[in-house]
Design a protein that fits this description.
- The chain has 368 residues and is α/β, with parallel strands linked by helices.
- It has one domain (45-364): TIM Barrel, CATH 3.20.20.210.
- Helix content is 36%, strand content 17%.
- It is built from eleven helices and ten strands.
- Helix 5 links the parallel strand 5 and strand 6 (182-187).
- It is globular.
């Protein structure tokens, strides 16, 4: 296994202002799709060069062709639409707004490649390991459960889950045929199932939180089955990351044993940037061997730089529950899960990555 790397990252980066402006012009009909793509291409080349310059081995396109880490992908599936639901984040008791309610209104179909064009361009502009991110299949289920899936299209939920697996496997197979060897699924829902309030909401919808954890672990394993033998399969758990806010809290204790024991993948990117994520004890369920936990100890939500000594001491603390050789380091989430970005600057983002590479090199002797 090559990836995850000792110094790794979740995938999204802050969008340059000219890219935001170009997208806004495109939305107003003032810029063609071809002209927007030219701006995207230029900005992607720059963010790739930045990643390489700080010493990263895994290289993403910053998700610069997307407005959201998940919605652009999901809405390219035939049969998917959206509604709106209210939410209150945990950032403050007064932060409120709406988030998309993802709905399946008819039978699901992948009509063409989704992240494939993103990968082809990324592969053409880096000699290092191009990494592709995509939402987990659970993103089409958790927020609405059974009520978010049309009963006429899917009277049997097993057929719905089978279609999810088929679609994701098709996408991963095509990426593999194009040469992709590093894929990361982004899953908020296993992290939300760590939060007592979200577990209670799931029960209110008639769902068993533990059964959901088993189900999502099974889906993730199935979508990666059949991948090329040298493709790194990973997942990132997130408690919310919109403009530096968050939507869930709680340690990994409720999901750790199921997640680590039943999910057959190579790496788990876990948030550990503050007390909302709990302690390292749940890492004891990680099987001995080649699976790795990527400790998200560096915050992508704020610009203040972490202490090298504190990061190293926390890695040492985690190594009491899982061998150091099975650990890596990363920011806790992407820097820009949506086009809006988190509340820090591009310069601060770069300094975080430089810190990441230095600490990883000090601890493991290499950032790779």
């Amino acid at each position: 296994m090559i990836a995850p790397f000792r110094a790794d990252h979740v995938g999204s980066f802050l969008r340059p202002q000219r890219l935001k402006e170009a997208r806004e012009k495109k939305d107003r009909g003032e810029l063609s799709a071809a002209d927007l793509r030219a701006v995207e291409d230029e900005c992607i080349r720059e963010v790739v060069a930045m990643q390489e310059s700080v010493g990263l081995q895994s290289i993403s396109d910053g998700e610069f062709r997307r407005t959201s880490f998940h919605m652009d992908f999901l809405l390219k599936l035939e049969g998917v639409t959206t509604g709106q639901v209210r939410f209150a984040t945990g950032a403050t008791t007064t932060t409120r707004g709406t988030i998309p309610q993802i709905l399946t209104e008819k039978k699901l179909k992948r009509v063409s490649g989704i992240a494939t064009d993103e990968f082809k361009y990324l592969k053409s502009v880096t000699k290092r390991t191009p990494k592709i991110t995509m939402p987990s299949p659970s993103m089409l289920h958790f927020r609405g459960g059974r009520d978010a899936v049309d009963r006429t299209a899917y009277p049997d939920m097993d057929a719905f889950y089978a279609d999810l697996v088929r679609i994701w496997k098709e996408e991963i197979a095509e990426l593999g045929a194009l040469g992709c060897r590093y894929v990361q699924l982004d899953d908020t829902n296993l992290a939300y199932l760590c939060d007592p309030s979200h577990r209670a909401r799931a029960k209110d919808r008639g769902e068993d939180p533990d059964a959901l954890t088993h189900l999502y672990a099974k889906l993730i394993t199935q979508v990666y089955s059949g991948r090329p033998g040298d493709m790194a399969a990973t997942i990132h758990l997130c408690r919310g990351n919109f403009q530096s806010t968050w939507m869930a809290e709680g340690g990994y204790d409720p999901v750790a044993e199921i997640m680590f024991q039943e999910t057959d993948i190579d790496g788990f990117f876990l948030e550990y940037d503050d007390e909302r994520s709990g302690g390292f004890a749940p890492l004891r369920f990680l099987p001995k061997g080649n699976k790795r936990v990527v400790l998200g100890l560096i915050s992508s939500k704020k610009g203040a730089l972490e202490s090298e000594s504190l990061l190293k001491s926390r890695i040492d603390e985690a190594s009491k529950f899982v061998p150091l050789d099975q650990l890596c380091l990363s920011p806790q989430c992407g820097f820009s899960s949506t086009v809006h970005g988190n509340k820090l600057t591009i310069d601060e983002e770069k300094r975080k990555l430089e810190l990441l590479v230095k600490v990883a090199s000090d601890v493991w002797g290499t950032a790779a």
